[in-house]
Amino acid sequence: MDDLERLLIERACERLVAQYCHYVDHGEAARVADLFAENGVCTLNAKMVGRDAIRANFQRRQALTDRRSRHVCCNLLIDVIDEDHAEGVAYLTLYRRDVGDGRRTAPSSAPNIVGEYRDAFVRTPEGWRFASRGVVSTFVADEERSAGPATGENPAHGPR
User: Is residue 88 within 8 Å of 121, Cβ to Cβ?
Assistant: First the structure.
């Protein structure tokens, strides 16, 4: 594999990370499923296997129209394994608040979660997709800790 091909693979994987955040934060969370391979695995609060399961989970998030969130990802590190596989880590800072009154902005004093996404990528006939995505939380706000598991959906807040 030459340097240009490696860079193109890295860029395609970085774009998936950005698309995931954009879809969730801008009312299109159900589209996240299309970023996964047909048999992809997404592990947040529970293990979701396949696009149908992932879509069902993120449709619940999409229905939370009073939720304001920003998934800020940085320090992306993509390791190309071969022409069809890559792995990556992205640092995550999540700001999230349910406003409940239709406001476009939400008060915030600190991130809800700081952690890392751990990703595996695969080239499919549709292009590069997540083979798997998981999150590891390093820091959580007090309300997150009291509401449920810090690595995904919790009973008080629903899907991230």
Answer: yes
Residue 145 has what DSSP assignment? H
Identify the domain containing residue 61 by its residue range: 3-147
Find all residues with CB under 8 Å of 94, minimum gap 6, and list them.
69, 70, 71, 72, 111, 112, 113, 114, 160
Rg, C-alpha atoms of the chain: 16
- Give the pLDDT confidence of 95-136 residue by residue, as tens digits: 999 887 766 777 877 899 999 999 999 999 999 999 999 999
Backbone torsions φ then ψ of 66, nearest 5 degrees: -90, 5
CATH number, position 58: 3.10.450.50
41, 49 in Cβ contact below 8 A? yes
pLDDT at 155 over 50: no
First to last CA, the chain: 37
Would residue 159 count as lying in a domain?
A: no
Structural domains of the chain, count: 1
Which helix (H) or strand (E) segment holds residue 24: the answer is helix 3-25
HSE-CB of 7 using CA atoms within 13 angstroms: 3
